[in-house]
Design brief:
Helix content: 25-40%
Largest sheet: 8 strands, mixed
Number of helices: 20
Shape: globular
CATH class of the largest domain: Alpha Beta
Strand order of the largest sheet: 3-4-2-5-1-6-7-8
Distance between the termini: 30 Å
Strand content: 15-25%
Number of domains: 2
CATH architecture of the largest domain: 3-Layer(aba) Sandwich
Structural class: alpha/beta
CATH superfamily of the largest domain: P-loop containing nucleotide triphosphate hydrolases
Length: about 575
């Protein structure tokens, strides 16, 4: 197990029709879209009524997109994986502990064939299974009780196996009180996210299952704490009186109120004297939007003002999911304020203008000429803040970046500041520009060993790290919130005919690229960039090194380079 295993989150609802699967798909997509190297596994454990895969139908990667539905239908999934694991588990003598099951069962299985990768960053789906004529029979014949009786630690070991490989494992559970729902709510998760609608049957069923899961955890040998996150769904904001009655309770109308119900449940589970979930439930509610009653659409991808703020609500709740805090520990209500400005639009036209200006600086007589040296271009934009800064503020932020000020002085430009620097003894130039809305552009040559004509992986990793952190340090100096989501688009160009020098079995080998450019993109919260630097650099560097005869990144080499940068960096 890693020192910081991923989180296993079960999505449960007592009844269908609560929007549980829709919530899972939207929250996972929201986390993926702000991915800083996170890996997400979505598991459809609602075997009798599988549907999670339908939300990701447009995003699955297949060689033949024309046969998409046939590919989805025949792809194996959870039930086949569990059947293979069960066969290995039954060969073990007695009731094996978690570590033995992890080593002798799950580590021996190749998990890759069961997965369906998507175009969403870091997100894979484990669908329920292969949907052929035998599917329903295989589901009915799978004896969950027998498996638990013979190997009680089987599902705990499975949770450990997934948590070691993914930052988030999100399980779509069966409804009601069944063997499968008990496994998903009691045995698998460290976080139980229960989705309910404001009616007595849905609320009481959810509360009962949460209490059952908490009681099981207390009396088991599972030492993981259980985090409970209730989410009220399909809320109709137009019915203000009923909305308030079902939230806080109404004795006259014999309405229990979901907030006091969960406040009492939380006090009982966590042994608290007091619990106030007002701020939490200000944010932990999903409104009913008729538009999303049709089909399986992901609101955080295509939501706009004409369809309400459903996508925004999921983004708000994803902040709660990402946080380690318990529902009563933070002032979650501050998250619920809608954005004062629309999400920033990626201004491709502005970045293209900066690129053209940088080309002119490199080749004033031939501005369209190709680069004579490998270059890296970084485009960055804070996607959820709309403030404008003065040029003086931008200059001061520039001067606060320790690796930039010694090289070049900023000057005013038509829409912000810019700086350029000629490398001593060479014609290569660095160019930087920061716009008053805080868009960032930079282009600079790759670090090449003095006197040589080849690229090395170490300097490549270091250069990417430095360019990312230069931008982040400038943004921090501007006083941006640490939660501000930064989108980076990094392009390497001028690579054609340049060799990449790597070590192969202790010998240096040069691999030449026949392709000129590679591009990649990441998003990361400003305050998390430093801690996630290694994964960010790995994501951005992989498309580059692949051009050199399909080279892959050696993780140890990447880790050593980033560790060196973090030790030597003048900003630390």
């Amino acid at each position: 197990m890693p020192s910081k295993p991923g989180r296993v989150i079960t999505f449960y609802s007592f009844k269908g029709g609560t929007g549980r699967t829709m919530a899972l798909a939207n929250l996972a997509t929201s986390i993926s879209r702000r991915n800083g190297g996170r890996r997400l596994l979505l598991v459809d454990w609602d075997l009798e009524a599988p549907g999670l895969h339908r939300y990701f139908r447009p995003y699955f990667k297949f060689e033949s997109q024309d046969a998409r539905d046939q590919e989805i239908e025949r792809h194996i999934g959870l039930i086949e994986f569990l059947a293979a694991a069960r066969e290995l588990a039954y060969t073990l003598p007695g009731q094996a502990d978690r570590n033995i099951l992890l080593d002798q069962v799950f580590e021996k299985l190749d998990f890759t064939p069961y997965l369906m990768d998507t175009e969403l960053r870091g997100l894979s789906v484990l669908k329920a299974g292969k949907f052929d004529k035998s599917y329903s029979g295989r589901i009915a014949e799978f004896n969950w009780v027998e498996l638990f009786d013979r190997q009680p630690e089987f599902f705990g070991a499975l949770a450990d196996y997934w948590a070691a490989r993914y930052d988030f494992v999100m399980i779509d559970s069966r409804t009601g009180h069944t063997d499968i729902s008990g496994i998903c709510t009691c045995l698998m998760p460290d976080t139980l996210l229960t989705v309910f609608t404001p009616n007595r049957q849905s609320l009481e069923g959810a509360v009962k299952m949460v209490r059952q899961a908490a009681d099981y955890r207390v009396n088991s040998n599972d030492l993981r704490p259980l985090r409970v996150l209730p989410l009220v769904s399909r809320v109709e904001y137009n019915e203000k009186i009923l909305n308030d009655s079902w939230r806080r309770g109404d004795r006259k109308e014999d309405i229990p109120g979901y907030q006091p119900a969960f406040e009492q449940l939380v006090k009982d589970i966590y042994k608290l004297d007091e619990c106030d979930l007002t701020g939490y439930f200000n944010s932990a509610q999903i409104q009913y939007v008729p538009y999303y009653s049709f089909g399986e659409r992901i609101a955080v991808v295509d939501d706009d003002a004409t369809k309400g703020l459903l996508g925004w609500k999921y983004k708000v709740f994803s902040e709660i999911v990402l946080s380690p805090d318990l529902p009563w520990e933070s002032d979650w209500g501050s998250l619920d304020a809608p954005p004062t400005t629309a999400d920033r639009v990626w201004d491709a036209e502005w970045f293209a203008g900066r690129r053209a200006h940088a080309q002119f600086i490199r080749h004033p007589l031939l501005p369209g000429a190709p680069a004579t040296h490998p270059y890296r271009e970084v485009c960055a934009s804070p996607m959820d803040q709309g403030r404008a800064y003065s040029r003086i503020s931008l200059r001061d932020a520039w001067n606060a970046v320790p690796t930039l000020t010694p090289r070049a002085q900023a000057k005013a430009s038509d829409d912000g500041i810019e700086a350029e620097f000629v490398l001593p003894g060479r014609d290569d130039r660095e160019y930087y520009s920061m716009r008053q809305n805080s868009d960032w552009y930079s282009t600079r040559p790759l670090m090449v060993p003095r006197g040589h004509r080849h690229i090395s992986t170490g300097p490549l990793f270091l250069g990417i790290a430095e360019d990312l952190m230069n931008c982040c340090w400038a943004y921090e100096s501007l006083g941006m919130d640490t939660d501000t989501l930064i989108r980076f688009r990094v392009r390497h160009f001028g690579l054609k005919s340049w060799p990449l020098r790597i070590l192969v079995y202790g010998y240096e080998e040069d691999r030449v690229s026949t392709v000129d450019a590679a591009e990649a993109e990441v998003e990361v919260a400003l305050g998390q960039a430093w801690d996630r630097l290694e994964s960010l650099v790995g994501t951005l560097a992989s498309p580059v090194v692949e051009l050199f005869q399909f080279t892959t990144i050696a993780e140890s080499r990447l880790a050593d380079s980033i560790a060196w940068f973090q030790r030597k960096d003048p900003g630390v």
